[in-house]
């Protein structure tokens, strides 16, 4: 059986065989240099589907059936998988209200936990306690035992929780759709502190930011166009004042009506700049802020409508198979910004200068996920794509007919992604070079 990938605006056209041979082991030692031409010229596919599982119960999907170009399709599945490599388990939530634990090798069921509404979220596995934290459209953050699915605690936030919690030590940091940031004891589910900003008065784009922890601070974007840093112990302000991205961009009128900062902050420590926080506002582009004060460092105003920012980094290395006396290639990094309006951007992290930009299929793409030296992205209408971080060119892809809204999960050569028709795929990303 094969699935053909539609050619859309320059994206790769190919066919991928759906094999059912599964691999039960994970390996992070494999490495592929993305600038090796074989990535772009292989006659065989770089991605292979090793298992598939119809996960979402169609009769119980929560949400309206939507119209796309005259074709009726089920609601978007916004949940993203979480991988437990030590025990070969995959955790993922669905629009049918269920949160699932599955065996990584064949996607067979271990348990299913029922929520009051959809469990479309980005879960976090806590290996020390062997529990999973995940949010739900019922407004709660759940903690369940990874082995059995038994409930440990349920924390009601009062609004949708779909973004990934951040865990540091004994504390979970989680944001909900109402611009509230919570610090929660990971064992008991008891509140340690919370902060809230008033919701935006203008129009809002669907989505919101998740917290990022770096050092003693927690960083978060808000729907009113501000970004703030808080002390992670007590929630006190860590910056003199919130960073107002629209004011720094001097926007007004119609431009300022879409205020949202929906991207999860990305923190990097750069030479000559120190700690920098990367975020994007829908109306003002991608911003780099000082991690110490929130002051502007640079802005790329052309990258509008950005929903995700990701820092891609490659360490200094020799090409696989190169002699030991070959020169070492220097480390490099790119700030990737995905937008359904303006495309996928690769920016120089220190300056914001454009390295490359590509148009993307209608409906946008998910956050790029590093995978074997390449980038794996989902498109809500046009399948999964493996692309080169050096120029955005397509390497491989598959199209199940309904697309992928949530971002995939990757560990070594293994990847998992939940399609919009509720089918979970396990994939192998095969490097083209001999070991």
Quick recap:
With 435 residues, the protein is mainly β. It is built from 2 helices and 36 strands.
Main sheet characteristics: 4 strands, antiparallel
| CATH topology label of the domain at 1-73 and 264-322 and 329-435 | Lipocalin
Count of strand segments: 36
By DSSP (H or I, 4+ residues per run), the number of helices equals 2
Helix content: under 10%
The portion of residues forming beta strands comes to: 35-45%
**CATH architectural type of the domain at 1-73 and 264-322 and 329-435:** Beta Barrel
Rough outline? globular
What is the first-to-last residue Cα distance?
A: 30 Å
pLDDT < 50 runs, ≥5 residues: 1-44, 63-73
Please write the CATH class name of the domain at 1-73 and 264-322 and 329-435.
Answer: Mainly Beta
Major β-sheet strand ordering: 3-36-35-34
Q: Average pLDDT, to the nearest integer?
A: 84
Radius of gyration: 21 Å
Q: State the secondary-structure class.
A: mainly beta
What keyword list fits this structure?
mainly beta; Lipocalin
Can you put this structure into words, describing what you see?
The protein is mainly beta. The chain has a domain at 1-73 and 264-322 and 329-435: Lipocalin. It has 2 helices and 36 strands. The chain has a 4-stranded antiparallel sheet with strand order 3-36-35-34, with no helix packed on it. Strands 6-7-8-9 form a 4-stranded antiparallel sheet, with no helix packed on it. A 4-stranded antiparallel sheet has the order 10-11-12-13, with no helix packed on it. The two termini are 30 Å apart. The model is unreliable at 1-44 and 63-73 (pLDDT under 50).
């Amino acid at each position: 059986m094969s699935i053909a990938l539609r050619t859309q605006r320059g994206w790769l056209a190919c066919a991928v065989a759906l094999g059912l041979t599964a691999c039960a082991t994970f390996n992070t030692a494999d490495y592929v240099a993305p600038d090796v031409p074989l990535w772009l010229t292989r006659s065989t596919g770089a991605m292979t589907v090793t298992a598939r599982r119809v996960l979402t119960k169609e009769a119980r999907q929560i949400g309206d059936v939507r119209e796309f170009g005259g074709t009726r399709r089920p609601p978007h599945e916004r949940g993203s998988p979480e991988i437990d490599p030590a025990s070969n388990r995959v955790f993922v939530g669905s629009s049918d209200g269920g949160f699932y634990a599955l065996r990584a090798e064949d996607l067979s069921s271990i348990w299913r936990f029922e929520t009051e509404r959809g469990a479309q979220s980005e879960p976090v596995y806590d290996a020390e306690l062997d529990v999973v934290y995940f949010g739900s459209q019922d407004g709660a953050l759940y903690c369940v035992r990874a082995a059995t699915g038994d409930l440990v605690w349920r924390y009601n936030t009062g609004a949708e929780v779909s973004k990934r919690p951040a865990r540091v030590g004994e504390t979970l940091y989680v944001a909900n759709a109402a611009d509230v940031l919570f610090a929660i004891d990971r064992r008991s589910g008891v509140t340690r502190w919370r902060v809230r900003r008033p919701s935006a008065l203008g129009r809002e784009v669907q989505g919101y930011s998740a917290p990022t922890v770096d050092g003693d601070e927690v960083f978060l974007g808000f729907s009113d166009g501000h970004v703030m840093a808080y002390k992670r112990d007590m929630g006190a302000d860590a910056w003199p004042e919130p960073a107002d991205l629209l004011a720094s961009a001097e926007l007004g009128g119609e431009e300022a009506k879409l205020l949202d900062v929906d991207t999860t902050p990305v923190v990097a420590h750069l030479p000559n700049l120190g700690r920098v926080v990367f975020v994007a506002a829908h109306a003002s582009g991608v911003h780099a802020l000082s991690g110490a004060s929130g002051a502007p460092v640079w802005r790329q105003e052309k990258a509008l409508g950005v929903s995700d920012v990701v820092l891609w980094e490659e360490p200094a290395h020799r090409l696989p198979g190169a002699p030991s006396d070959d020169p070492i290639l220097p480390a490099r990094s790119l700030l990737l910004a995905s937008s359904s309006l303006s495309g996928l951007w690769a920016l120089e992290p220190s300056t914001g200068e454009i390295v490359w930009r590509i148009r993307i299929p209608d409906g946008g793409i998910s956050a790029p996920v590093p995978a074997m030296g390449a980038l794996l992205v989902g498109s809500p209408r046009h399948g999964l794509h493996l692309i080169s971080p050096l120029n955005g060119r397509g390497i491989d892809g598959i199209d199940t007919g309904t697309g992928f809204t949530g971002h995939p999960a990757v560990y070594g050569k293994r990847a998992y992604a939940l399609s919009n028709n509720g089918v979970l795929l396990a994939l192998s990303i095969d490097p083209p070079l001999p070991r």
